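Quarterly update from the structural biology core.
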Amino acid sequence: MQNDVPNSMRDRFPDTPYPRVNAIFRAGERIRRRQYGVSRAFPEVDGPEFWYWLMWYGPAIFHEIQAVNYAFPGEGLRARVIGENASWKRFNQGGLVDWRRIERCLREAGMNFRGGGAVLDFGCGCGRILRHFALYAGRGRFYGTDLDAEAVGWCDLHLDFAACSAGPAAPPLDFSDGFFEAVYAYSVFSHLPEEASRAWLAELARLLKPGGLAALTVQGRAVAEAVLSGAANLGVPSRETLRGGLARLEESGFLFYPYQALGETDARELDPARYGNAFILKPYIERRWTEAFDLADYLPAPDGWQDYVILKRR
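Predicted structure, tokenized:
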């Protein structure tokens, strides 16, 4: 479903209604022409491969990008989504890696980001992933929603190509049935209890058109094994607590441990008992997440951490 414009006709980014996006695009074109071998390595200037390269190196070493790039949120907002060592560089590059995987998963499942469809970042926070969809600004339509009103307000102020709004703690969202071509949620279902998880999954099904796609990440076996081995510490549950719950996890495929309190970086209007760490295994997804969806793809921990679940709305 990709745009079939020949490479020779795609040596220039498209013009968009967004001046800042256009400024980034024009800077990217100049850098691509100037840097030896870059145009050969990335024959499509508006392809995700060149965009990944440009957004990885541009904010750090190219003054043209530094001068026009979207701002980065302050350290407090960054810390809410990436925790300690919340540098702008870690925020940018980590979001770029996750954007690239989500973009590729959806595109390989049939999503045409150049086709004008609407895409929702469910749990957008302060735009760590959403900001990188500026590549498709003016061709796709992008939306973000999150419980964190402050983070959403930052997105709404700074990411002009996306419409962002604070959402409720429980469904429904304020969108009509079948509004979206695609929805993605990074590390949202990783923290919801089973009842809330299933309610939000049903809401995403309502929001998607028939044939629409959802890319969702979950904490599966890789995360559980990292906690059990001592390679990772989630705080909740402890290694001993998780070990005691393994039989239940294997039997049901879903295990949830609520937070007891939220740290200072998470000091929002949230009930810690309604959020925590959820472990979800593939057999559970195959049984319980396929009432309104087909399982289009399942990537077990491609980054060594969360599993990627790609669903297609029936």
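The two ends are 18 Å apart (CA to CA).
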